[in-house]
């Protein structure tokens, strides 16, 4: 599908916004389908359809107006995807989404295919949660099987009683109990696979979280080259095993002994791959577009060491952040997602700092965050 064609995008968030920007730059038309109106992706689309994913009539009309469909959001109901799939090609194929949108299915897939992941068990009641956690040992982690992201639907467990309580609070039909992983750091890899099966991997990102939300990505990751290569190899194997056409993001825990465990999979652009927009020859968003349109993939080559910093709604507590001060460093690239309401923990934008070394980029990112959030020395966030 060549430039001039129309790409349908399910989901209206920032991942779709950046995908749409990449698609429009290449001369494609972008149609967005999302429940809200004036969404981050809808704002930059040629056509914005605002309807619930369950509105199959609107979804059918939407699909008939485009040449190919992709998504930026994982929790799309299966029935909606099946309808779209019967009308137009959908990439990645809906089965990939079905596996990755549910932790229990994802873990079952990883285990069945022999990929390393944390010890876990599926639980469906408070009693099962308590018994499994006790068997796993404490601390353990309870994670809802469905609809989990940014630490939502998760609890750290220190006792069987806590496991039962956490199950009740979760209010979900199924969950996974996972062993606590004593990791050295967290890293991730985004790779793209095209229609012919060729895979390209982006550089490995080291991810620093605060309160379960990604705060920074550091690229290249500060890990041994052998660990980075192994992460990329596993990501490529996973993309092949899932038969993905499009993107696959893989999050890993790096254990103290240097071995890797797969934490999560996402068949879409990933927050930890945002650095690619400014720091790689081809961004993850353009790569998704090329893959789903049947074009050759671009080069994922890193052009510069980079640190990406997320800007959350919390930054608005003291008033509008000081964008002008942030941009006084010419190596800072700012992205804002066009969200009108700055809620706590909501991802409002991000910035990337490109410097000759990771150390310089980290120092400049600290300075940039202090300017943006008007922090005095040693007085974070006040
Ligand atoms: P997730 O939503 O599974 O990516 O989890 C969010 C964050 O919680 C991860 O990035 C880790 O920092 C932490 N976390 C999740 N699972 C575990 C675990 N089994 N052991 C230790 N930390 C975890």
Q: Short description, anyone?
A:
With 382 residues, the protein is of the alpha+beta class.
Radius of gyration over all CA atoms, rounded: 21 Å
CATH class of the largest domain, anyone?
A: Alpha Beta
What small molecules accompany the polymer chains?
adenosine monophosphate
CATH H level, superfamily name of the largest domain: ATP-grasp fold, B domain
- Uncertain residue segments: 378-382
CATH architecture of the largest domain: 2-Layer Sandwich
H/E topology pattern:
EHEEHEHHHEHEEHEEEEEHEEHHEHEEH
For the record, give the distance between the C-alpha atoms at the N and C termini, rounded to a whole number.
51 Å
Helical percentage:
25-40%
Return the domain count: 3
Shape: globular
Number of strands: 17
The share of residues in extended strands comes to: 25-35%
SS-based class: alpha+beta
Mean pLDDT over all positions: 95
Please summarize the sheet with the most strands.
9 strands, antiparallel
The CATH topology of the largest domain turns out to be: D-amino Acid Aminotransferase, Chain A, domain 1
With helices defined by DSSP (H or I, 4 residues minimum), what is the helix count? Answer: 12
Please describe what this structure looks like.
It is a single chain. The chain is of the alpha+beta class and 382 residues long. The chain folds into 3 domains: 6-90, Rossmann fold (3-Layer(aba) Sandwich), CATH 3.40.50; 119-179, ATP-grasp fold, A domain (Dna Ligase, domain 1); 183-373, ATP-grasp fold, B domain (D-amino Acid Aminotransferase, Chain A, domain 1). 32% of the residues lie in helices and 26% in strands. It has 12 helices and 17 strands. The strands form 3 sheets. Strands 9, 10, 11, 12, 13, 14, 15, 16 and 17 form a 9-stranded antiparallel sheet that branches. It has a 4-stranded parallel sheet with strand order 3-2-1-4, sandwiched between helices. Strands 5-8-6-7 form a 4-stranded antiparallel sheet, with helices on both faces. The N and C termini lie far apart (51 Å). The model is unreliable at 378-382 (pLDDT under 50). Bound molecules: adenosine monophosphate (AMP). Adenosine monophosphate (AMP) is lined by residues 118, 141, 148, 151, 178, 180-181, 186, 209, 212, 251, 263-264. Residues 118, 141, 148, 151, 178, 180-181, 186, 209, 212, 251, 263-264 line the site of adenosine monophosphate (AMP).
């Amino acid at each position: 599908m060549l430039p001039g064609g129309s790409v349908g995008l399910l989901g209206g968030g920032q991942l779709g916004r950046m995908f749409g920007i990449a698609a429009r730059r290449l001369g494609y038309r972008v149609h967005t389908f999302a429940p809200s109106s004036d969404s981050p992706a809808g704002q930059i689309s040629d056509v914005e359809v605002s309807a619930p994913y369950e509105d199959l009539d609107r979804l059918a009309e939407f699909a008939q107006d485009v040449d190919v469909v992709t998504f930026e959001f994982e929790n799309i109901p299966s029935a909606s995807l099946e309808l779209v799939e019967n009308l137009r090609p959908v990439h990645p194929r809906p089965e990939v989404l079905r596996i990755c949108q549910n932790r229990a299915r994802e873990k079952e897939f990883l285990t069945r295919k022999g990929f390393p992941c944390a010890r876990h068990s599926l639980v469906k009641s408070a009693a099962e949660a308590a018994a499994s956690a006790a068997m796993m040992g404490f601390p353990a982690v309870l994670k809802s099987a469905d609809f989990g992201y940014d630490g939502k639907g998760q609890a750290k467990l220190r006792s069987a009683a806590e496991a039962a309580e956490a199950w009740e609070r979760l209010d979900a039909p199924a969950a996974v109990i996972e062993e606590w992983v004593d990791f050295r750091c967290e890293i991730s890899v985004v790779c793209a696979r095209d229609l012919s099966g060729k895979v390209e991997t982006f550089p490995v990102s080291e991810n620093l979280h605060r309160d379960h939300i990604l705060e920074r990505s550091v690229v290249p990751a500060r890990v041994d080259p052998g660990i980075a290569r192994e992460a990329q190899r596993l990501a490529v194997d996973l993309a092949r095993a899932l038969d993905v056409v499009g993107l696959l993001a893989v999050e890993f825990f790096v254990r103290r002994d240097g071995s890797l465990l797969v934490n999560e999979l996402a068949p879409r652009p990933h927050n930890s791959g945002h650095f690619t927009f400014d720091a790689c020859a081809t961004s993850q968003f353009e790569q998704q577009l090329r893959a789903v349109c049947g074009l050759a993939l671009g080069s994922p080559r890193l052009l510069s060491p980079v640190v990406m910093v997320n800007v959350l709604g919390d930054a608005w507590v003291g008033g509008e952040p000081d964008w002008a001060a942030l941009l006084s460093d010419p190596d800072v690239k700012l992205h804002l997602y066009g969200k009108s309401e700055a809620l706590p923990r909501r991802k409002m934008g991000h910035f990337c700092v490109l410097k000759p070394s990771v150390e310089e980029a980290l120092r400049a990112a600290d300075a940039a965050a202090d300017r943006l959030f008007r922090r005095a020395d040693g007085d974070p966030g006040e």
